[in-house]
Design brief:
203 residues; Rna Polymerase Sigma Factor, Chain: A; Arc Repressor Mutant, subunit A; DNA-binding; sigma factor activity; WH-like_DNA-bd_sf; DNA binding
C-alpha cells in the first residue's frame, strides 16, 4: 500500500493560509500577536501597513518632518515592546497603535516645550489636533472601499484629500502647501468627499 506523506507546512505558509479572508483589523491583530512572540516578519508587515497612518499622528503634534520620523521610530519600538500585552478584546489594533504614536509625539512635544517655554494652551491644541488626525485615520481605515474610491480620483483631488487625511495637515496648512486660498481648498475637498460618498453609495 502506497502512503502519500505531505511535507509539513512552514510557519510562513501557515500564516499565509490563516490571513486569507481576514479583515484588515483581524490581520493587524494577528500580526500584533505574532510581534508579541518576537516575530520580525510580522513586525515588518505591521510597519508596512500602518507607518504612513502613524506618521500622520506624529506630524500632527510635532509639525516637523524630521522630528515626526524620529517619533515614529520610537513609537514602533514601543509597539514591539508592548505587543505581548495587547488585548484585541479591549482595543481595535489601529486605535491601540495610534494611541502609542500620539502619546510618544506628545511626550516629545512636552520635552521640547520645557526648553522653549511653550504655553500649555499650545500643547492642548497639538493634542487635540493629533486626536483629530487619529480619529480621521481610524475612521478611514474601517472603510477599505474608501481607499479604492480615492485611488480612482484625479491626481489633483487625490493629493488634496490625502494632505488632510494622511499627512494630518490643517486646512490652512494644506492650502498653503498647495498654493490655494483656504476657502477654495475647503470647497474642493468638500466636493471631493461628496463624490466619494456618491461613488460608495452607487457601489
Amino acid at each position: 500500500m502506497h502512503v502519500c506523506v505531505q511535507n509539513p507546512q512552514s510557519p510562513q505558509d501557515q500564516v499565509s493560509q490563516t490571513v486569507q479572508g481576514l479583515s484588515e483589523n483581524e490581520m493587524l491583530s494577528l500580526d500584533i500577536g505574532l510581534v508579541g512572540d518576537l516575530d520580525r516578519e510580522a513586525f515588518q508587515r505591521l510597519y508596512a501597513r500602518t507607518s504612513s497612518k502613524l506618521f500622520a499622528i506624529c506630524l500632527a503634534v510635532t509639525r516637523d518632518h524630521a522630528a515626526a520620523e524620529d517619533v515614529l521610530q520610537e513609537s514602533y519600538l514601543k509597539i514591539w515592546d508592548r505587543a505581548k500585552g495587547y488585548d484585541p478584546e479591549r482595543n481595535r489594533p489601529l486605535a491601540w497603535m495610534c494611541a502609542i504614536a500620539r502619546n510618544a509625539a506628545i511626550d516629545w512635544y512636552r520635552a521640547r516645550a520645557r526648553h522653549h517655554h511653550v504655553s500649555d494652551d499650545h500643547l492642548n491644541l497639538q493634542e487635540s489636533e493629533a486626536a483629530a488626525a487619529d480619529d480621521r485615520i481610524i475612521a478611514m481605515n474601517r472603510e477599505d472601499q474608501v481607499w479604492t474610491a480615492v485611488s480612482d480620483l484625479d491626481a489633483e483631488s487625490e493629493q488634496e484629500l490625502k494632505s488632510i487625511f494622511l499627512l494630518g495637515l490643517t486646512y490652512p496648512e494644506a492650502a498653503q502647501r498647495l498654493g490655494l486660498p483656504v476657502a477654495t481648498f475647503k470647497s474642493r475637498v468638500r466636493r471631493t468627499v461628496i463624490r466619494i460618498r456618491r461613488k460608495l453609495a452607487d457601489d
